[in-house]
Amino acid sequence: MSGLRTPLTRRAFLAGSAAAGLALVPGCGAPAPAAAPALRLRPAAMTLDLAGTPARTWGYGTVPGPEIRLRAGEVLRVQVDNALPEDTTVHWHGLAPPNAMDGVPGVTQRPVRPGEEFLYEFPATVPGSFMYHSHVGMQLDRGLYGPLVVEPRDEPLAYDREYVLMLDDWADGLADHTSHRGGGRPPPPPVDPRDVVSFGGRTYPALLVNGRPPQDPAVLEGRPGDRLRLRVMNVAADTGFRFAVAGHRLTVTHTDGMPVEPVAVDTVRLGMGERCDVLVQLDRSGGAWQVAAQPEGRPGLGRAVLRYTGSPVSTAPPPDARPAELDGRLVGYDELLAVDPLPLPAGGPDRVFDLTLEGTEISGQSYPDADPLPVVEGQRVRLTMRNTGAKWHPMHLHGHHFQVLTASGRGPVKDTVAVPAHGGEVTIDFLATNPGRWLFHCHNHHHMEDGMVRLVEYRR
Ligand SMILES: [Cu+2]
Which SUPFAM superfamilies did the record assign (predicted)? Predict the structure, then answer.
């Protein structure tokens, strides 16, 4: 396992971020003699340079934190040395580890106190594009996140280069923002007509792609004829994004790391916590092209730049150039077909929970004063969600992959699903195969902090 692996045939980049921040240290505990040393994450106070504006924040040395990359079947071993003045944990977003490794304080583990160490160790069995982040309070709204890529043993996709792009809304440490708990100033009086897609209500002064503001964008490079793989991840607290690359189409190959039948589109939408892998064929002769992350329902633009190798930097588009592709063909869940549907037993679900999302309550309850959702190992479990509010809610299930039920019968396999506002409905099925107590929550951190959380609880 290495954050620095450089395959001969294909290079992996975390564009614009130092991917070399992983130190090798001996793991604690009593590792087997052949065990690889643990990677080390050291959450600590740091300064993030936002195009010349220093922002004091908390991070894992860089923002995003160092890329963790391993092959399916390898054991993830990460030692966390907490150098923060607060408790912390690390959650492996999208992976299905044993419950005790899931990183939810007070539910799956005692939080890691200041000055303490904790070793996360479990096999990463399923390939895909994942993230890691703190699961304590609003720490994720600071810089405590990073990409986690599990490569398949045999890569079925053909591509020349790969980039991870982490989309974020940022307020921490900026002069016009003082409270990281609030996570942004309140917005102006909302207009929010019913056709406006909105995932949140706060205002964030900066939109970052790989920790960089539009004035100092990450640069993706490729040659004419190259095919790029982009692993796009929305790690924002309060912002859904529409993503597009000017002058290029996107071929969606994975949602939340799980393969789908390839679909060519102009733009994809990512709620907070969602990931999307796309292939981009560099079929232009040159130039520099806007890689745009348009926040849904609010102004501003996050961006990176795709530069054909050799093209002058001066051809880069202005920071606010908005690609027409953002208004082009947008793929929805109902168009996505899972390559590997879950092996759901025939005959329908064993257990059904009908949930209403109202404001930031789930069926009238706010966690922790909320009923758990009891399941039994082996059950096929169905969650139906109806959203009566004005905000979209990206609902995330820990410890499991679920299948989005669509008319095709082969909806995408995911771990985070955006439930549309104003009466939108989504139904998901999962197999109860990973015993424990697992969070099911909205990935809007403000909504989560408000109690938009339930526990899926295994019982006998
Ligand atoms: Cu929400």
Answer: Cupredoxins (SSF49503)
